[in-house]
## 1
Amino acid sequence: MSSDAIAIQTAEAAGQPWVATLHEWVTTVDHKRLGVLYILYALVFLVIGGLEATVMRIQLMHPHNDFVSPQVFNRMFTMHGTTMIFFVAMPIMFGFANYLVPLMIGARDMAFPRLNAFSFWLTAFGGFLLYFSFLGGSGLYGAGNAPDVGWWAYAPLASRAFSPGHSSDYWTIALLASGFGSIATAINVIATIVSMRCPGMTLSRMPLLAWLNLVMSGMVLLAISPLSAAQIMLLVDRYLGGHFFDTQAGGSATLWMHFFWIFGHPEVYVLIIPCFAFASEIIPVFSRKPIFGYPVMVGATVCIAFVSMSVWAHHMFTIGMNSYANSFFTITTMAVGVPTGIKIFNWLGTMWGGNIQFKTPMLFCIGFLFQFLIAGLTGIMLASSPFDWQLGGSYFVVAHFHYVIVGGILFALFGAFYYWYPKITGRMLNERLGKLHFWLFVIGFHLTFDLMHIPGLLGMPRRIYTYEPGRGWDTLNYLVTIGAFIQGTAILVFVVNLVISYFKGAKAGNDPWDAWTLEWSISSPPPVYNYAALPTVASRRPLWDLKHPEDPDSRYE
Amino acid sequence: MSTIATPLPKPPLDWKLPYRGKVGMTCLIIAESAIFTIFVVAYLFYLGKSVTGPTPREVLETPIFYTICLLSSSLTIHFAGKLLEGGRRGGFLLLWLVTIALGALFLYGTGQEWHRLIYQHGLTISTNLFGTTYYSLVGLHAFHVTAGLIMLTIVLLFGLAGRVGSERSHRVEVLSLYWHFVDAVWVVVFTVVYVLGR
């Protein structure tokens, strides 16, 4: 059945003019194609956001550098942050969720395929709108400019008086559009997981990836909505003369901070939980052991989701809250460390005594484990409010959250790319280039972000476009920039690998990793309809049961 | 797969999962609740913080009649759904029409109140903090009523064309879930704006 499907697909692809293929991709409602579109779209923005980071790093390489003007520098950090969070990380997570969740739970598509396409194009529109601001930010008569109010757009900086023109409006509407797209996708993922599981796939047999994406989508509902509400308020202020964040009319700038961070902190977990999901699928397969502590894993994730909803104001210690608020948010923030620690022990427990294979996906997951642990430790340092008073708004914070986002999220994502690329394209990624990518990236990452903590401790504030020589920051900043270039080179190796392997890579076959979840039971790439007959499962590892009829998991459930 | 002899237990015969439409709508309601929560919090936070008048106590009148209209539309839509499930399409269409009429009446009431506030009391969205928060919160709700009315009207048109039978009652149920939510939000908005807020 599967070989027929492949034959049909290639025949179709060969006989079609490219316009027809393009039309098929633009009008598609297939969850796999939409997943690929999400991922490609995010990769394009990853390169753009990376270039913006490079501009900042070149500017900060030497004291008194004049590579870009202060104005351009402000636009660069605003666009870099906004792009990386909303147009790289979010779409790429939804891309993988779109592609993998229906396959893993044995469904033919998402619950609402057309809504799915709508969400993607809404998100895509948001990204294009944000970047159109480079042309249209001040209207077409004045030269355009991009948003420059920081990715938090704190009041009153984002008000009409201090941010004239339309640049902040592009930012607001881009986030509003992509936010609605995200909420719709989250609804879709939840409805798919709740209502579309194949027979026998009870919640306790569901792959952890599906479980964690369910939790993540629930968080999106509760976290992105406040952001949308706050953006609507900002629009009311900017266009209708409202006073929500207008301190002169009695409004409160602090309220915007609260609304932004009620979104902003859970967002970190919205991004990291799918990465936990990747690690929870990849580590068992390359340790040749089932996941250690499955129910605890699920429980810890739900626990993280709950606790992370009440930690937001740890981003606001430096604005001067009362001591009760400071204590509360210090305690809740530290409490997140407990379920997270449980997860890390579970992954270690999975690897312990396993027959570990150090393939590229596993290497990235191990990197993820190690770096995420360190990021968590600096997180606990910053959670303590007196410590935060000292270092909030310094490069220490920048180093901390890049450790989470690059060292944690991006590493796990690369692992996911190497692991599922064979399923998506039918070809393996080159292992040698993969290892080169990994080691270059590890070296570049640690050179950049380990060292970046130190200028922060020495008092270097974030978001400055240049600095005085002789404060002990010079050499460190120079090395940090070199690390950024090494990371850039690693990304280049990755992109080359993606392209070359697509044409020249070894054929993957259905199940190149000898894995246990349903997506590996069908051809690579999967046929449009996913499963000719809906599968039935009786355990957490349905493919193990098929491969080992003499000793199936279902016997022990 | 079926050709391979496996020792797998048979799939459960009664494999039934919740209807996806209902799950999707429930999720939408959760997300919408979060949006409304933020607006309600802003309203409560800014109570009495306006630098200039008018204040809620001076200008707001409790819209009892229109509130009764909206809340009773929840009842009519519920019974409309029940009638459709039982296959009584005439009764369904009638109650559906009543629901739309009650919703439209409520919207008219909001419009009238806004007209009075704007032309008699000079309160607009940019007058003071009360104006900003009041019009945003009540306006957000009115927007949801409007969206609901449009969807209800579409169902009515399909119903009049004879396309809505008992086999579609689970879909109609999804819309009625949304309408109940809009009503429930009004209970909160009413309490906050007209009871606590004065």
Note: Chain A has one domain: 2-556.
## 2
Amino acid sequence: MKISAIKPFPVWIGHRNQLIVKVETDEGVFGWGESGLSGREKAVVGAVEHYAQFLTGRDPMQIAALWQEMYRSQYFEGGRVLQAAISAIDIALHDLKGKALGVPVYDLLGGKQRDVIPTFASTNSAEAGKMIEQAQALQAAGWTAIRFFPDFSDKGGVFEPREHIAKTARACTLAREALGDEVVLGIDWHHRLSVAEAASFCQKMPRATLDFLEEPIRDETPEAYAALRRMTDIPFAIGEEFASKWQFLPYIERDIHQFNRLDLCNVGGFTEGMKVAGWSEAHYVDMMPHNPLGPICTAATIHFSAAVANFAWLETRVNPSDLYGGGQTDDIFTVQPKLTGAVYPVNPAPGLGIEVNEAALTRESFKFWEAPHLKRRDGSVTNW
Amino acid sequence: MMKIRAITTYAVWVGTRNQLLVKIDTDEGVFGWGESGLSGREKAVVGAIEHYTQFLIGRDPFQIGALWQEMYRSQYFEGGRVLQAAISAIDIALYDIKGKALGVPVYQLLGGKQRNVIPTFASTSAPPGPEMIEQAQMLMAAGWTAMRLSPADHQSSGRYDPRESIPVTAKWCIRAREELGDAVVLGIDYHHRLSVAEAASFCQKMPRGTLDFLEEPIRDETPEAYEALRRMTDIPFAIGEEFASKWQFLPYIERDIHQFNRLDVCNVGGLTEAMKVAGWSEAHYVDLMPHNPLGPVCTAATVHFCAAVANFSWLETRTSPAEKLGFDNAEFFPVQPRIQNAVYEVSDAPGLGVEVNEDLIKQQSFKFWEAPHLKRPDGSVTNW
């Protein structure tokens, strides 16, 4: 079998762009992948164009060898744009290989380790009363692990960390009191704090208020995270932006993080994801994959979550209150993963088990989108 | 769903050693072969397999990763080389089954083939002296570009004094390098018989550039001792043939102690564990140089592993003009990996691509065998 075409579809679906990649073969079998570099999709499309030059005519079954070639045969190794492109191609090749062999993708990854995939859901209000109400609705719908957000609503483009820390800590404390001891509670700061700010936030809550702290600070300096690790006892959930095993390396080897937030559509696809998961297992770190994209990312991440030994919860942005919008995508993704309560079933259909209406997909177009360019009150740039 | 119907162990003498072969039968007639690598303690492994058989009968042979976890973790006492040698053989046999059931060679279940042939290193069998150099020249003439020498007195079955072996061995390594030229890769296997000080003295008796790898100079339960030796010599280390899990490899990989990874698929925990170790070795730019001293089932499994990993240098072979050990007896193994011009072919047959003459194997019997119980000149125990 030979790769005959690689087609990127960067299209606005619901409330964001999705960069879908289709790999076709001369035998008619094809595979779908998705790329995760939200906001810089055109760069990834350009990278996919480069890779398509030498992938056409190649054997799609030799996935790991093609991964090596895409990563290493260009002198400039790594980086998130190239890696986001590799991720989508790698996922599409797994879809294709599963279909060609008549097996679900998890059977290419050592087989299924769990029958369903537990998820965590997220609230979207930082106001204590509403946060608790949303969390109770999620609990009633079956969720046992819930993530909060600080108040990230638009304040005219201003984000001043110190204005949120005390408020958010109080809301989390009240939420723990209201929701009880059993539910797993965490919060995602979306890397908006400094080490000192993150330490102050943690120290304003009684111990055991939160079970995980996601991305309190930016992640290019493992030493900064190691410093924060000494200032708080809350387990860390880190890694959604990491674009290779090498970025995970210090976090895993120094036991900095306790939950691994790997994103299959950014880390380098299944090929890289399985290596990162394997070594996380050696450090007793559980996978808690990032999954904010479309149904193809979700399907791929379900197969990954089914196949790894060390797993906590998969992120889902779908929940009964539809807090995140996103809308219906069934017209484009005619077969896609659907939650049963708070878990995803594992689909035994060949490949990823998703179906795409390509005509409907082609009708959609790309919309340039920028993450909010946030400023501190003094006018300086701060992270979104 | 296919089900495991029976697990049969054959601990039999073939050639010049016992081989512990494991056959797994399924209710659909598909079966798989595995081999276990704990030479000298095979009966203990057979006992462990009896325990595992209790709960593996009736189970789905496709869920290899999950069964691995269950064998490793659902017994409270995790790890250890006897249990792991049992898991290794079972894991390999399950891969053979899965490949046959899907009609693909095992490498297709490990990410596909990364190389077309598997380069090997061969070993000289003569002790240091003119014959050793003649054997090396014979190997070079037969196509080998990497070879391993054996130290003085290593054939002894009674008395062994490291300090007597060191100067003779160093002298002949120097001579070998002079006679064989700069281009050939030369290493030596001290079979963990030296202390740190003895190993340092051995290395320091040779000019820089004499050896390209030093295999197992010292015992391996103390990574710190290896790190001390790492600071005393610049010869790359080849370590790991006895390691029975990723956790044993962990300090060697993470602290960059070894430069060649001598993983043994039949001891480390089969292909499931081997791929995790290989993945993280890749992150540290450490190449796999697998141990392969057993029978054709081990060789076949290791060939598939070598085909599938990105980071690879040479596979050990004990089949060469310099050694006749009889492990690859064609009457017992009518279809087995073929070596030509110092490389193994990669079989495209489904599963491992080996065939075992089970009737003949059944006629063979086990022979108790002890490694020589070596003594220092003062009568104290020293390692074989």
Note: The CA atoms of residues 40 and 370 of chain B lie 6 Å apart.
## 3
Amino acid sequence: MLVAILSLSLLALALGLALGFAAVRFKVEGDPLVDKIDALLPQTQCGQCTYPGCRPYATAIANGEADINQCPPGGEATIHALADLLDREPKPLNPDNGVEKPKTLAVIDEQTCIGCTLCIQACPVDAILGAAKQMHTVIADECTGCELCLPPCPVDCIDMVPIEQDIMTWKWSLPEVEQVRESDQ
Amino acid sequence: MSRRLSKFNGGVHPPQHKTESTRLAISTAQLPKRLTLPLHQHIGEPAQALVQVGDHVLKGQQIASANGYVSSPIHAPTSGTVVAIGEYPIPHPSALNADCIVIESDGEDRWGERMAVADYHDLSPSALRNLIREAGIVGLGGAGFPSYIKLNPGHDKVIKTLILNGVECEPYITCDDILMRERPQEVIAGLRIARHALQAEHCIIAIEDNKPQALAAISAAARDYDYIEVVQVPTLYPQGSEKQLIKVLTGQEVPSNGLSLQIGVVSLNVGTSAAIQRAIFHGEPLLSRIITITGNGVDSPRNLETLIGTGMEELVSQCDGDPEQLGKLIMGGPMMGFALHRTDLPVIKTTNCVLSYHREQMPAEKPVLPCIRCGACMDACPVELLPQQLYWFTRSDELDKAQDHDLFDCIECGCCSYVCPSNIPLVQYYRFAKGEIWIREREREKAELARQRFEFRQARIERRKAEHGSRRKQKARADKQRDAKRAEIQDAVERAKQRREQAMKQAGQWQQERGDDKQDNTQQ
Amino acid sequence: MTEYVLILVSTVLVNNFVLTKFLGLCPFMGVSRKLETATGMALATTFVLTLSSVCSYLVNHYLLVPLNLEYLRTISFILVIAAVVQFTEMVIHKTSPLLYQVLGIFLPLITTNCAVLGVALLNVQQDFGFLQSAVYGFGASVGFSMVLILFAAMRERITAADVPVAFRGPPIALITAGLMSMAFMGFSGLVKG
């Protein structure tokens, strides 16, 4: 009886020591997983996922606090990519966070703009050019369509305009038979 | 013709339908009243308009200049007036409009200035290439790649073989065949110019064995030149595809995602060669090309020398077809062409064929059945890809796997769709997948840029806060110092005041004392 | 020498732990959705199985048998296996955090993988020596890995295919596993006994 207890305790102790040593030897710093998740997000920094930016959302996903279907600008493509990375089942976009909309750009109506710089301070990627009492304008190439500039504008002079398709941005669509099949499912 | 030919995997033998349009010789299409010239008829950046509405232009005058390195200028195909510059319908699978210059011809067909070159040997390859560029010559085989770039291999590359592609493997199309039959000297002359521009060693002209007259004509014209080899290749689709032809003629394969330049080979279409000859020997830019008008929608299928920008309906009428009775028009052939959304579109530099279907003689719609995994597509693929796997990957949105299976090496020849027993439109899946991958990559790059801008902005805000913080502290310190100094000064002033008061009080006291003394003194 | 080859062939093909003995089905079904995770899991299980097979032999031979503590076999084996799995977890967390995140709960669940405990106990039952135990453990893990990877590759293809709605996911996976098991029965005549 005593022998049994002693020998088991000894075994446990030996294994525990080995594990303790291994824990120190294989300590992990930081979290590279967050970087990988962040790389898949669209970087609009819009906050529709309820987190203040894409990196906090990525951290939340890595910690298991957030689900992968909370990003409307990323849409289905991002959900699939995240599901692929984390080996989870892809889900439809959570309607509480928004809906997937076609890509839009912000355009400032120059007749109405009063040069207050509130939108410049709101833009997360510095896509608005201007200064106090000077004309403000959105740099189309840098605008991500996050819509964060719309609420601060006191004269409501910013419109979200859908991006026009021309022959340079046009792409082939799936054959009709496939589109029908998708809508059946 | 003792060259040992190799083979490529697969390939199909669709019914050729070539004899319909070779019964008649080349005729010149009638001068149209209106010409619509899209600014984007080539691979690369669209050209930029040089003229304005109302300008009168002469035949051969440059009306749009090349924009950047990979681009090509556009010239007025006939004399007339520019009536409009704007967005008009163009022959493109998207059915979208694009920028065009519209010219109304004045019927005179008057040439502008033409600068012919007497002996091209006097010109350096670089000068020759510039002339070819200014003549607006692009690949007339269907791709529309600016030819002067193809003729510029760079300083370090030696071009051993220049191939002229007279194969024309696609059914229905006969424009190259008839060009070789009727104008072989033009083809050979253009070949010699291209050879000089490339400084190539050896030239091969490849012709399929279903074109015996063309072979005879070209062989006769090339007889005097020992560096030109005329080779007959077996009829097989897609023998005329550049990479497949190079494999057959030289036994070498162009590396995956690479260019034929990398193995010292350049290939040109015979039509492009004839256009080069016209540009250099006659100073004529690319204004017209031979187009095959065929199909059951026209009663007299034939080849027409057509001005670029002519409406397709006019060409159909000139071949005894009724535009009202047309069911479908295809630009190109039945394998690689695309259906047009209207019948009144203009022909462009890369239009090699207009395939017309009468409304009541449309090709039968075949129902699409599920894939039975038979593997016939794999056997037929000339690039030795796995079309079935690409199909499954595209369907399940595993596009990165599709890319790993060499999706971008697919030449979209249509052999796989042709042999599929379930009639699955395989090429459409691959075109979709390629477009989707490009778009996703572009979005990823954009997102990365946005992320960098965001992080930089955050860093800037933090820095400013830190600066403000330290500046406030500095100001507080300065204030304190100033206050301390002021307090010191105040103290000193106070002390001085006190001292003066003291002194005044003392002085007053003394006066009083002296006054008292004096009084005392007087009283005594 | 032939004895070890026989053990290997037996554990990998004839008496495959997953398809013939039906042990270790939990990770087999749970981790086989993607090929990369399946490969990672296979390597982890190989490491755990071989190491714990050896360690449990040592514990049994030098601690339990001399002290007549055979009745403590199960608990001490589990102790050894748990420690080895913990160690493996730490190594994976350090070398591939993505694999660590993706394997998730299945990594510590290797502890309860009946194939691991099964190998340890079968070693004792078949009275194997040190080297035989090691080869037996290694062979079992190779068999497990092979089947896991094959199954994952098949499942990837099945996800892309036209499966009827009622069968999508676990049902078609189980049917496929059953068919694989039947196929592996073809090896039954390979090794006598």
Note: The two ends of chain A are 65 Å apart (CA to CA).
## 4
Amino acid sequence: MNEQLNQLEAELAAMRPRALPAELVGRIEADIATDSRRSAWPDRFLLSAIGSGAIAACVIVGVLLKPATDAFPSAPPAVATSTSDPPRAGDYSLAMARAEFGP
Amino acid sequence: MAADEPDRWRQWLDRHGPALVLFARQWSATRADAEDAVQNGFLKFWRTRDTAREALPYLYACVRTAAMDLGRGERRRDRYERANEQRDSAAFEFSVERHEREAAIETALGQLPGDQREVVVMKIWGGLTFAQIGEALGVPLSTAASRYRYALTRLEQELSEEMAS
């Protein structure tokens, strides 16, 4: 480049573009702050999802590791049965009479 | 986001903001539109800067795209018509003693073809190298350098004619 162009280049470099208005900086700051808040939410969601998954996995493992004998008893529980005959009509009156007059 | 991030964006904006508004002014009807473009472009840059090979050319590319997008809007065209009726304030902070010369330079700068003007703004006020300008514009380094040379030659001619008249 010739001397004149070098001079012009220096002249241009000496000129200062106008500073940014504070209002524009404030707008950008607000947008960046909003972005920061938004980006924090996925992290929290991810952490809570991982925590819930871990708890669910522990429960499943616990269920699977539980002894099989507890789950399926070898003998069915005994059913309470009565060997005596079912009560008949008049049994109640008879019992009352025995209580009052003796056997 | 790292702990020092809150201040880092401000450093970027302080360093490059004024030149970015001047840069965006090329596609904007008014200074307010250029500032909107810088806001949009800077936010996009800040959100996605990790994806860029080199940050500074990427910042200029983001603002350029934002300014072009805003300039295409119909609402902006309406504002452009209003702006033609009443031009907004100067793009530079003029010194008292050189006000006339600097105003002439600004006018001449505004008359440059867009592809030359953007290279001048990026080189002089943005401090980008020709390689970085080439990356921001998607052109070879040699093209960026030759556009810059043509722009300075044309500016020199314009200003000589201006001074002669």
Note: Chain A is about 70% helix and 0% strand.
